[in-house]
Amino acid sequence: MNAEIDISKTELKTRRLTLRPWRESDLDDFYEYASVDGVGEMAGWCHHTSKEESKEILDMFIREKKTFAIDYNGKAIGSLGIEWYKEEDMPELADQKGREIGFVLSKDYWGQGLMPEAVRAVIAYLFDELGLDFIICCHYTDNPRSGRVQEKCGFRFYKSNRSMTRYGVEKDGCVNILFRKNDKHIG
Prior knowledge:
Blueprint: E1 12-13, E2 18-21, H1 27-34, H2 51-64, E3 67-72, E4 75-83, E5 98-105, H3 114-129, E6 134-140, H4 144-152, E7 156-164, E8 170-179
Parallel strand pairs: 5-6
Antiparallel strand pairs: 1-2, 2-3, 3-4, 4-5, 6-8, 7-8
């Protein structure tokens, strides 16, 4: 079952990053990376075509209280959301608490190990602080970078799926899962 989450007062620190709630003042940083062709498309959404579009989504991030800004040296360079997973697709997990995570990072910061660092911090938060039993993370098969981040963080293949992107294209994907084991998680 989906666990209730509210990150509005949560800040996580890693060696190089701060994961924190989004702020209205992040709009320029958000638009800067979300407007780059190929960034959002890897996660199933179209890159932003206006600051107004970015502002609507930023307002949603703030209102829904489930998406971290990934802050690197005072600049928001990505996001990491703690999403609702589709319980009807995984009835075998009904007696356990879990959520799905999803992430995106500015193209300027790819290949520096920042996303695994951010994901590990959120894994620790979800298991150690909130007591979740499992975390799901998905990626499209044409996005092996995301799959590699998940693998580095201990996620294991759970099942294949096919889903519709927000831009109306059906794509094949992988559903990966990480279980909290004896209060010690992998990753």
